[in-house]
Amino acid sequence: MHVGLGFVGLALFWLIIAIPKGGKWHVRLGKAFAVVTWVVGGSALFSSAWALVHLDSFAPHTTYASDAIWQREVYQFIFSILLYLSAATISGAVFGIQVVRKRDRHDELRQTSLPIWLLITMLSAVGLLTFGLWRLFTQQAIEAGMPQEAYLFPAVVGGFGIITVWHEWRYVFGPSPGNRNWLRRHVWHMCGTGVAFHTAFIVFGANRLFGFQLPGGWQLIPWIAPPVIGMTLTGRYLRKLKAEL
């Protein structure tokens, strides 16, 4: 379900990009993309929480493997990051849909599920930052056979997540910015959700489909490149959109 709908989400994203904006098909496909995002993100969130809370039932083989300590550490590393990213993906989709529904009725954003998802995302970001820093300054990573410097990545992602969620929280509970700012927020968050689909595909799908694996620290490139490229292109489009409004 998760993988299949992930491909559907990728296709829907590019269809929405290609068709005229604001028309009935843009709205219909946008709603479908949001539903797919909630299912894909929700299944990832559930799986990540399960893996972190009770790995013995999520991946029983790690209990009896000869390198069990290393495998358990790898699972913790990956699913700590995925817990935050899945929460952030759902939060972004909720944000993008609600701002376009409420438009200039800014105060009504506080009455939706958006504050709850922002809180969930904030908690997962704090947990990710704490996990990364704990492993950076203790010997547990080394004892498990993991390179200690690898934990700088979850620490940085968690810290960035805290700053981002705080910024969005202030937007929701602050005064209305006016000037159709809701449209720019809609574009930013829906494109960010699309970036999340591409990142997941490149990190987890591409190596299984095409059988390639980057060595060492180069494995971070599939995590970093899609957000950098996607957000850069989105920022350029938003600057153009702002000039037209």
Mind sketching the topology for me?
Blueprint lengths: L1 H17 L5 H30 L1 H4 L2 H4 L3 H35 L11 H23 L3 H5 L7 H22 L7 H30 L10 H24 L1
Helix pairs in contact: 1-2, 1-9, 2-5, 5-6, 5-8, 5-9, 6-8, 9-10
Please explain how this structure is put together.
This protein is an all-alpha fold and 245 residues long. It has one domain (2-244). It is 79% helix and 0% strand. The protein has ten helices and no strands. Helix 5 (68-102) packs antiparallel against helix 6. The longest helix has 35 residues, at 68-102. It is globular, with a radius of gyration of 19 Å. The model has no long low-confidence stretch (mean pLDDT 90).
What is the total tally of β strands? Answer: 0
Low-confidence stretches: none
- Strand percentage, roughly? under 5%
Helix content: over 70%
Global morphology: globular
Task: State the distance separating the first and last CA atoms.
Answer: 40 Å
The whole-number mean of residue pLDDT values reads: 90
Radius of gyration over all CA atoms, rounded:
19 Å
Count, helices: 10
Run of helices and strands:
HHHHHHHHHH
